[in-house]
Amino acid sequence: MTALSPAYPAVPADALAIRLETPADDDWIENLHEVSFGPGRFARAAFRVRERFPIDPSLCFIAELDGVRAASVRLTPISVGGIDGYLLGPLMTDPAFRKQGAGRALVRHACDLALGREGAGFVLLVGDLAYYGPLGFIPTVPHAIRFPAPVDPARVLVHSLDENMATTLAGDIGRFGKG
Ligand SMILES: CC(C)(COP(=O)(O)OP(=O)(O)OC[C@H]1O[C@@H](n2cnc3c(N)ncnc32)[C@H](O)[C@@H]1OP(=O)(O)O)[C@@H](O)C(=O)NCCC(=O)NCCS
User: Fold this and answer.
1) Does residue 92 have its Cβ closer than 6 Å to ligand 1?
2) Residue by residue, what is the 3-state secondary structure of 124-148?
């Protein structure tokens, strides 16, 4: 795996495994979604984006700890102002497995693969800078990226190999490849 994100303490390699999500994970992921975000989950800005554009199954991963499903992340191809990239989320770890590094391992893995994809300029998300900052995400210009639902501008973060991306990315969220 290419290391694009800043170094972060690793979990023991024998405990953590990352694999592609399969249809057999759907019910588990939906349950975890409800546990993680509650009834308000369908109104979240990132959910509204995912309603309009399909996830990329080749960029949806499950982290297992000692062979047991622990965490999930999904990426959705999008464009912003004509630049193609991905929306990351939801990222969720089963409460029984939190603080063991599964979440950040999934973010690193998904970002490294996504930013290696042809034409992909960024990974965007709505989340806490305290968590995602050490994983390479920085704030975007407040209100520059227009979501289909209200969003706290301070939580709109981007990760890119282009150091100007955070200050220049702007516009409506559209379909990947159609910008
Ligand atoms: C956020 C979440 C995915 C982290 O999963 P995880 O597997 O426990 O994450 P990691 O083990 O990689 O990292 C845990 C560390 O991040 C910290 N952390 C977790 N959420 C945080 C947040 N919102 N802000 C800052 N730090 C956070 C933990 O306190 C822990 O710190 P420590 O290592 O000093 O003990 C998990 O708490 C979760 O599913 N939360 C509910 C859903 C959610 O909020 N998802 C993110 C949406 S943006």
Assistant:
1) yes
2) EEECCHHHHHHHCCEECCCCCEECC
Task: Please indicate whether residue 74, judged by its CB atom, sits closer than 6 Å to ligand 1.
Answer: no
d(CA 28, CA 123): 25
User: Could you read off the pLDDT of 70-120 as tens digits, one per residue?
Assistant: 999 999 999 999 999 999 999 999 999 999 999 999 999 999 999 999 999
Q: Quick check: CB of 101 below 6 Å from ligand 1?
A: yes
Reported as type and span, the H/E element at residue 32 is: helix 26-37
d(CA 103, ligand 1 centre) in Å: 7
Residue with CA nearest ligand 1 atom 31: 99
| Ligand 1 in reach of 127 Cβ (< 6 A) | yes
Q: Is the dihedral of CA 11, 15, 21, 25 positive or negative?
A: negative
How far does the centroid of ligand 1 lie from the alpha carbon of residue 131, in Å? 6
Answer CATH for 16-174 from 3.40.710.10, 3.40.630.30, 3.30.70.2640, 3.40.430.10:
3.40.630.30
